[in-house]
Design goal:
This is DUF2189 domain-containing protein. With 285 residues, the protein is mainly α. It has one domain. The chain has 14 helices and no strands.
Length: 285
């Protein structure tokens, strides 16, 4: 058969058809295949400690894999610190560092997969952390990552507004920054205003993501059902979920010292522990 060169209208129609097919496939993956909502269970404070203990066991068993996987986190932290110290972004150092917790649930996707495979008794290699990239749930995971990143950007904008309201009239310097923050009324005003506002952002992300990403790694539920399930877990267990958020925040602060190097241990332990907390909070199929 002789092939002919199509006209621009044909090319446009073909491109539109292909784009429509991709969008339909992406929409189908966003919705997932499972239609029955997962069963949510009550969890206790002891479950939080058990999840941390099991997460640490995963870290010890997979430490050669996990350390290679998460070493990027302290490197990013050091780079952010250097940028902040050497530019006018110094007031954003703490918001940027604390903002890691807002995108952490998606960043730990590979750790969830490693814990899932170890729990199931499957062979586990470093490359298995990339398995979710090939799963049908990758589209909703990326969409959730975009949502969390948008919340992070909004948090940075709000943090900038808080700085302008309190200490914005003073030009930050490396030597005098801590003195400005801790030694002036305006600095304490920024702290007293910024901490509760940041806690609101953290609580929002916690409610949306406490089990949503592990659920997407484990099942083809789709993004809407994963978000609803995460909210149901939070509503059913408000005390333990808030306590879990406090544990995560406290360990991230400890892991940031010195120079964010502690995140090499804290990040994988929290990632693995989050998987086991999900297994406690959501009943198996």
């Amino acid at each position: 058969m002789v092939k002919t060169i199509g006209n621009p209208l044909t090319w446009t129609a073909d491109a539109a058809g292909a784009a429509g097919s991709h969008m339909a496939e992406a929409a189908r993956r966003m919705g997932g295949r499972e239609t029955e909502p997962p069963q949510v269970r009550q969890i206790t404070y002891d479950d939080l400690l058990a999840a941390l203990a099991t997460g640490f066991e995963d870290f010890m068993a997979l430490r050669s894999d996990v350390l290679a996987l998460v070493v990027i986190y302290p490197l990013i932290g050091v780079m952010l610190a250097l940028i902040a110290v050497n530019t006018e972004l110094l007031p954003y150092l703490f918001p940027m560092a604390s903002g890691f917790a807002l995108v952490g649930p998606v960043a730990a996707t590979g750790l969830y997969e490693l814990s899932r495979r170890r729990e199931a008794g499957e062979p586990t290699r470093w490359s298995d952390a990339l398995t979710p990239l090939r799963s049908p749930s990758m589209a909703p995971i990326l969409a959730l990552g975009g949502l969390l990143m948008a919340i992070f950007v909004i948090w940075m904008l709000v943090a900038g507004m808080i700085w302008q309201i309190t200490l914005g009239a003073q030009s930050p310097t490396e030597a005098g920054f801590l003195a400005q923050v801790l030694g002036t009324n305006a600095g304490w005003g920024m702290i007293l205003l910024g901490i509760p506002v940041g806690a609101v952002f953290a609580a929002l992300v916690l409610a949306l993501a406490v089990v949503s990403v592990p659920l997407l790694v484990d099942r083809n539920t789709g993004l809407p059902m994963a978000l609803v399930t995460s909210w149901r877990v939070t509503r059913t267990n408000p005390g333990p979920v808030l306590a879990w958020g406090a544990i995560v925040a406290g360990l991230l602060v400890l892991g940031s010292l010195p120079l964010f190097l502690g995140l090499i241990v804290v990040m994988p332990v929290l990632g693995h522990a989050s998987w086991h907390l999900y297994r406690c909070a959501v009943a198996p199929r």
